[in-house]
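Let's study a protein:

___
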Amino acid sequence: MQEIPGGITAVRGIEAAGIHCGIKGGGKKDLALVVSEPPGVAAGVFTTNRVKAAPVQTTAHLVKAERVHGIIANSGVANACTGDRGVRDAEQMSDAAARLLGGDKGTILVASTGAIGRYLPMDNILCALPTLVERLSKDGNADAAEAIMTTDTRPKWAAVETKVGRRFARVGGIAKGAGMICPHMATMLAFLATDAHVSSEVLQTALRDAVDRSFNRITVDGDMSTNDMVLCIANGLAGNRLFGSGSPAYASFSAAVAHVCSLLAQMIVRDGEGATKFVEVRVERARTREAADRVARAVANSCLVKTALFGGDPNWGRILAAAGAAGVDVDPRFLTLRLGEVLVVRGGQPVDEARSAEAKEAVSAENVVITLDLGLGKEEAFVWTCDLSYDYVRMNSEYRT
């Protein structure tokens, strides 16, 4: 597998565009379109929040179509908690784009992100659609990635090439996300495409597995969104033979999808609202995988841990306290904790206060690794997160105003 430039348009048959249509002020891009020619099969993973935005409801149905032509998405307005009107607006976005592209109704997936409880300015969107379609190109990756941003400070994309059977296939994607990030999944959108020839069932399996190992491993603030989704279109232009989920070709293909998802997920965490550090929380030797996962998330979502990391404070007591509150078996007599490579706790007690300077250096770095060994079993888990800074409060207190 090799990482390649170009993001989603690195994939054969994929074009994209992003323009300003007037949803957001200041001329910022706010409407994106990704199109596959030829159309392909699709897969999707959606938020588990029971308050689901209209585009989530709509696309969860559309993604099952035999052929999907593309994805249209806006930023600035989430089209969430907008009732029947919101669903009609989402469907109209999809149908209007499909009509302009000369395709069938129901072949364009739809997504939105932004402020909840506001209606889409449909006149703006419908008037802008012809220009959006005209701007479609192989060079449109960056514009599309920018058009789906909200509080993101930078666009996010990635692509890889790998051998699937006897042919080389590509997987590329774009994503947005910075705040309200917590599985499952986050206030994030991720759109992927591949030229691999793959059935919809196998594509869904590969995407679900990839999301579980990437986007469902990230948290910025512990809040779950109403709008998040990960979508993937496969158009088959690589020309490989169809493969099953237990084959070597599947192993190669699924690894490529997972790699792109992991790259995008880490970009989201690094761009967390006000974030200054990328943090990996590893939990080892738990009694069960679920226990390891719950402890990792408890530590990663602890505001006390995250603020300590922002201040470069190796306050390991906060980490142990968060682990102990996770609601699973944790025995302090067996706990071992490392901050980076620095051993700070063994048997639930401090190892050597003389190493506090080294521990402080470890948590003051741009990339921080917290490794907590529970000493109870053989299972493990990880979560990617970030610190919590002054800017997070500022950005979220001003979000709607």
In short: The chain is about 30% helix and 25% strand. The first helix runs from residue 54 to 62. The chain has a mean pLDDT of 92. The two ends are 45 Å apart (CA to CA).
